[in-house]
Design brief:
Blueprint lengths: L2 E5 L2 E6 L10 E7 L3 E9 L8 H12 L4 E2 L3 H5 L4 E8 L9 E11 L9 H5 L1
Antiparallel strand pairs: 1-4, 2-3, 4-7, 5-6, 6-7
């Protein structure tokens, strides 16, 4: 079972003022960044003498497939995260276990949205 972690921060634009009595920065444009989702786990080969090549190839395909991925997890559901974009995957080694391979996925939360195209020439009339 993989371990899932969530990290979140606000995006805050800080404006420094050089004059006047104010010594603090002015904070503007405060909004929530995308959630960072980290998924870590270990895949094993059924044969204790073989490397889990097929399982590693499946994880590699997740990274290489275009677009965001649908994901289901109780922790993510609490934060309304149903899709993630995979930013990177690493495969750290595990000493003394040739039948196992660790993986670590770094993802960003994503959502579907619709854009409304406004034709500027129609608005001018």
């Amino acid at each position: 079972e993989p371990l899932v972690s969530i990290f979140v921060s606000n995006n805050i634009l800080e404006t420094t003022l050089n004059r006047g009595d104010r010594v603090e920065n002015v904070l503007e444009e405060i909004n929530l960044n995308n959630y960072k989702v980290r998924i870590r786990g270990v895949v094993y080969s059924e044969d204790p003498e073989e490397y889990p090549e097929e399982e590693v190839l499946q994880i590699r395909k997740i990274l290489e497939a275009p677009g965001s991925k649908t994901i289901e997890c109780e922790l993510l559901r609490i934060f309304n995260i149903t899709q993630v974009a995979v930013k990177s995957i690493s495969f750290p080694g595990i000493a003394g276990t040739p039948e196992a391979q660790a993986y670590d996925m770094q993802c960003l939360s994503d959502r579907d949205f619709e854009l409304e195209v406004i034709n500027e020439s129609e608005e001018i009339q």
